[in-house]
Amino acid sequence: MLYRLEERRPVLHGALKAAPKLLSLQRMNIHFRTQILYHLKAHHLDRLSDGKFAVWWDCESCVQISIRYIESMSEADQSKKEEHLIAYFEKAKKIVTRLLERLKEDIDHHFSVTPGKEFTRAGITAINFDGCYHVLCIAPDGKLIDFYKRIK
After folding, report:
1. In terms of residue numbers, what domain contains 44?
2. Looking at residue 1, what is its pLDDT?
3. Residue 52 and residue 34: Cα distance in Å, rounded?
4. Which of 26, 60, 19 is nearest to 43 (CA)?
5. Greatest Cα-to-Cα distance within the chain, rounded to the nearest angstrom
6. How many CA atoms lie within 13 A of 119 on its CB side?
7. Nearest one of 35, 28, 24, 20 to 68, comparing CA atoms
8. DSSP symbols for 37-50
């Protein structure tokens, strides 16, 4: 299993480069990379919805979406992120699965009618969840490409 973790290191490195706020955390916490790599081991091909058309994420989209979610947290929550990194990954996954459950019929209809086009909810079609708007993009093969909290 270690060889699989080693294969994912470039994905993790790329995601961390795109997340400058987390690079400082990485330098402070020596276990940071290990935590993320073990998280990837557990969630590298998770199915996120149970609709007619399955939505899933691979290790790359899992890390990028989770890190983007962590970066969008308030400053008060960010001070705790060193201690509870994996809890934030799980929270991001929980929000994604709840939103996908809400959109299951729309996703199924979209891919039935236009199977070769991405399913996107952005701009005025962004999804309101707990008072925040979220942007979502799903590839025609069902891979969750993008998900983040929209900043006004």
Report:
1. 2-149
2. 38
3. 35
4. 60
5. 49
6. 26
7. 20
8. HHHHHHHTEEE---
The answer for residues whose C-beta is within 8 angstroms of residue 135's C-beta and 6 or more apart is 120, 121, 122, 126, 127, 146, 147, 148, 149, 150
More confident residue, 28 or 87: 87
The overall pTM is greater than 0.90? no
Nearest to 66 by CA among 27, 120, 127, 12: 12
Distance CA 90, CA 125 (A): 25
> Between these two residues, 91 and 115, which has the higher pLDDT value?
115
Count of the separate structural domains present in the chain: 1
Secondary-structure breakdown of the chain: helix, strand, coil percentages, each rounded to the nearest 5: 55, 15, 25
Helices (H), 18-152: 20-28, 32-43, 59-71, 75-78, 85-102, 104-113
Type of residue found at 80: K
Q: Are strands 127-129 and 132-138 parallel, antiparallel or unpaired?
A: antiparallel
